[in-house]
Amino acid sequence: MEKHEEKSKENSPINADHSPYSLEPQNGSYVGSHSAYEHYLFAQKSGYMLPNNQQLKSPMFDTQGMYEMQSPATMSDPSMSPSPPPPPRIYKPCVVCSDKSSGYHYGVSSCEGCKGFFRRSVQKNMQYTCHKDKNCVINKVTRNRCQYCRLQKCFATGMSKEGMEERGELIH
């Protein structure tokens, strides 16, 4: 039974004779195949002490403020608190269909749907026809019903293909 205990002791990570966590300094620093954090955890669990009976401590592993984010300014001056995040960008609604705008595209505030529709229509030089009186209501719900009126509204609200040529988006 003593042999079995010796074998299990040999395989134990806490056994200092066969530990993969060498805490012997090499060239003034602690090195090994494991991370510094693993060394720290091992030393903390096993009660290893450093030379001069000091416990293994490092500001890198100080868990007291580990979830606080600090900027370089607050690191140097603890009395300064971090500035609040900037407010989210708010765009006007899409000028074509009144859906939520994703930014300014082709000169106007537009949604992703109208931006893509305008780009494809202009790139392919599409010619659409209206099946009613060329005065269809274009909004978020009805924008896909009449391509002719949607494209006319894109141009009427100020969407321009001028920037497309500069970016190489136009196919001639």
UniProtKB/TrEMBL annotation:
Superkingdom field: Eukaryota
Record GO terms (molecular function): DNA-binding transcription factor activity, RNA polymerase II-specific; nuclear glucocorticoid receptor binding; RNA polymerase II cis-regulatory region sequence-specific DNA binding; zinc ion binding
Upper classification of the organism: Eukaryota, Metazoa, Spiralia, Lophotrochozoa, Mollusca
SMART domains per the UniProt record, alphabetical: ZnF_C4
Protein name: Retinoic acid receptor gamma
Organism this protein belongs to: Mytilus galloprovincialis
Span list, region Disordered: 1-31
InterPro entries xref list: NR_DBD_RAR, Znf_hrmn_rcpt, Znf_NHR/GATA
PROSITE patterns xref list: NUCLEAR_REC_DBD_1 (PS00031), NUCLEAR_REC_DBD_2 (PS51030)
